[in-house]
Amino acid sequence: MNNFHDEDAMVKEIARHFLPSRGGKLRLGIGDDAGLWKPKLGFVTILTSDWFLEGSHFLREKHPPDTVGWKCLARAASDIAAMGGTPRCFLLNLALPVVATGKWLKGFLEGLRRAAKSLDCILAGGDTTRSERILISITVLGEIREGQEVLRSGAHSGDLLYVSGTLGEAEWGLRFLRKSAGRVNRKNAGMRKHLYPEPRVELGRWLAEKKLATAMMDVSDGLSTDLPRLCAASGVGALVDPEKLPAPRGIYGESARQLALHGGDDYELLFSVSAAGASRLPAKFHGLRLSKIGEITGGRGVRIIDKNGMTEPLRAAGWDPFRRQK
Ligand code: ADP
Ligand code: MG
After folding, report:
1. Whose atoms come closest to the Cα of 29: which ligand?
2. Most buried by CB count within 10 Å: which residue of 81, 118, 130, 178?
3. Residue to mutate, 33, 127, 135, ligand 1, most ligand atoms under 8 Å from C-beta
4. Is the CB of 92 within 6 Å of ligand 1?
5. pLDDT, tens digit, for every residue of 280-303?
6. Which atom from ligand 1 is nearest to the alpha carbon of 8?
7. What does each C-alpha distance from 260 to 61, 201, 302 come to in angstroms?
8. Which fold has domain 7-145?
9. CATH 3.90.650.10 residue ranges for the chain
10. What are the start and end residues of each CATH 3.30.1330.10 domain in the chain?
11. Ligand 1 atom nearest to CA at 93
C-alpha cells in the first residue's frame, strides 16, 4: 500500500471503505461541501466530539492501527450511550504525516469500519490534512426520543449507584501493553478492553426508555474522577462501598481496588436509580453485569467506606491531561 500525495485521492480511499452507505438515514454523505442529516420527528439530536492523539491517547509503535480506528469511534460513541441515545453518523477529522497514509491508514480504516458497522453508525464526512503527528477528531451525531435523554444532573439523595461491566480492566490492559515488547496480545481480556472498548449503547438506551436511570454518564477517566462530576451536576454527594466494585477477573485485593477506583478508559456506564427503580433492575443486562457500588447522599462530596467501617473522602486520581504528574 503506497502513501498518498494527494488529498482528494485519500478522501476517495476513505469513502471507499465505507461505501455503499445505506440511503435513507443520511440525506447526503461524503462528496459535496457538507453532509445533510434529517432528524426524526419527535427526536432530539445528540452531538459529541472527541480527540484521539498520537502520543497522548495512543502510541504509533505500540497500538496497531486497526485498534486506533476502532477505539476513536467507540469512545466518542460512548458519550451518546451515556445520554441514553443511539449513534447515527459521524465526522472524521484526520491529520496525518505522509508516512502514515499507506499501510497505517489502511489498518486504521479497517478498524474504524468495523466499529462503524457494529454501531450501525455511518461516516458522513470530515476533513483531511497533513501534520507531523497523527491527530484524529471524531464527531458523532446521535438521537434520542425527546424527553428520554438522561443527564448527569438528575440524581437524588437516596438513589442507588450502579456501574456496568468491570472497572479497571482497560487500565490493567494498558499496563500490560506498556510492559510487553513486540506484538500486542489481543487474547488478554484486559488488553482487549484497552484496545477494543465497547460502548454500552444498548444498556444506555434501555435505561433511558424504561426511565430507570435518574442520572448517567460514561466512566472514561476513572470512577474517582468521573463520579464527582455526576455528583456536582446533581448537587449531591455519594458513598462508595469498595467491596462492591466490579474488579476485573484475575486480580484481587488492594491492587484490584485501586484499578477499579482510578483506572480510566473503561467506557462503562455509571448511573443512579431510585430505590423503586432498583427493584426492576436485573443483575445482568444481556450478559453484562450491573453492580450496585454505593448510594447517592445528601451532603456534597464523594466518600468511600474505609477498613474500619468509617467513611473517608475519595481522592480523585484518574486520568486528567492537565493534572501535574507526581
Ligand atoms: P472542503 O475543501 O470544502 O473542506 P473537502 O475537500 O475537505 O472539502 O471535503 C470534500 C468531501 O470529502 C466532503 O464531503 C467531506 O466531508 C469529505 N471528507 C474530507 N475528509 C474526510 C475524512 N477524513 N473523512 C470523511 N470524509 C471526508
Ligand atoms: Mg476540507
Report:
1. 1
2. 81
3. 127
4. yes
5. 999 999 999 999 999 999 988 999
6. 6
7. 27, 21, 15
8. 60s Ribosomal Protein L30; Chain: A; (3.30.1330)
9. 152-313
10. 7-145
11. 23
Cell of 215: 442520572
Q: What angle do CA 77, 78, 80 make, to 5 degrees?
A: 65
pTM for the full model?
A: 0.94
| Beta carbons of 138 and 36 less than 8 angstroms apart | no
**Domain 152-313 falls in which CATH fold?**
Phosphoribosyl-aminoimidazole Synthetase; Chain A, domain 2 (3.90.650)
How far is residue 272's CA from residue 156's CA, in Å, rounded to a whole number?
A: 8
SS3 sequence of 82-136: CCCCEEEEEEEEEEECHHHCCHHHHHHHHHHHHHHHHHCCEEEEEEEEECCCCEE
Point out the ligand nearest to the CA of residue 123. Answer: 1
List residues bridging with 86 in a β-sheet: 143
Residue 23: pLDDT above 60?
no
Q: What is the pLDDT of residue 36?
A: 93
Pocket test for ligand 1, best of 11, 27, 93, 134 (most atoms within 8 A of CB): 11
What is the distance in A from the centroid of ligand 2 to the CA of 193?
A: 33
C-alpha cell at 92: 472524521
Q: Is the pLDDT of residue 132 over 50?
A: yes
In this structure, the strands spanning 213-219 and 268-273 are antiparallel
